[in-house]
Give the backbone structure.
Amino acid sequence: MLTETEKNLFPLLADLPPQTLDWLRQRLSPRRFLPEQTIISSGDPSRGLFFLLEGRVRIEVPHHAGAGIDILDPGSLFGEAAVLTGSCHRLKAVAESEVRTALLEPDDCRRLLDECPQVYRHLSMILAAKLGRTEALQQLLEEEQNDLVRSIGGQELLPEQDRLSGTSRRITAINRRLAESASSAEHVLIIGESGTGKRRLARLLHSTGERSGRLLLSLDCSSPPPLPARLTEGMSTTERLEAAQQVALFGREGVE
């Protein structure tokens, strides 16, 4: 099934014994897909491991059609998560162009993993990288949805979970502090670099605390909505920023 040129596209195959590679070539079956044709749907049982030979494949987050978490080029593998875990596919794969793949069926995948541990390690590294990108995109989509609702009604959506995902010591410590702070009436200051999840922590803190039934308003104090020029004439930059923050927070157009 695989030519020598196609075999060289996949680092996974470089260290396979010759007899294993010959067996693999015999077991791979060709699959072709048209542009925008679904290759894998979220929730499908494992279809096996796809070797992308020609074309491009878009990996999408469920329920966000067109939101590509990744674009795969020839030499990429996909479908490995369901192969490794024995579960259903979590992501959707769609052909961006005309696509030609070679498919290794689930039973053959299990045999390959049993006989070649290096394949298992290689697929695990691919999966870990994809999971990181998936988590980042899902958080971004959640924040964009939240921004939309806030722009309409000024209310933050509550997160679906009550804690951060993960079991590392660092994540466990953060979740413990989160639970402690949620049960307290004290003010909480969350600091960190841009993109480290401060707003997500604030929403978790609100949703698990006594005020979860009330509105959560989010305001970027560094760039509040602008004020009419008549209200800010003669003000310094600092004074204009403070006045804009006051209006955004309290809804008053007058400046005291």
The mean pLDDT is 77.
